[in-house]
Amino acid sequence: MEIDRQRKPEKVIGPFGEALSLNDLPKSKTTRWVMRRKAEVVAAVTGGLLTLEEACDRYDLSLEEFLSWQESIDKSGLPGLRISYLSKYRTEGRAKQEQLEQTGSQSPRDPITDLY
Length: 116
Description:
This protein is mainly α. The chain has 5 helices and 2 strands. The protein has helices at 35-47, 52-59, 63-76, 83-103, 111-114, and strands at 12-13, 19-20. It has a two-stranded antiparallel sheet with strand order 1-2. The chain is elongated, with a radius of gyration of 19 Å. Residues 110-116 have low confidence and may be disordered.
């Protein structure tokens, strides 16, 4: 008896509108992660070319690292994947937190966690 399995696409639309296949993705031994390579891997997972687990195994990524790439794209688009952008974003966040601590203020509370 044949099990009904969802088939993976042979190609997906890449971050710059190009068609991506498994052969077009970065090499599995990639160690230098530039914006384009990160975006291609995220597009492959989003489009169903690779599962999240396959991408993490193939590129030796942690779940947190992949999800941070995906979140950066969702929040800031492709420029959010640049290391310099992430550094600036983190620096600004730390500065705001330090300012709040110096003034004795607290960061805004999460109403959801306040319920628990």
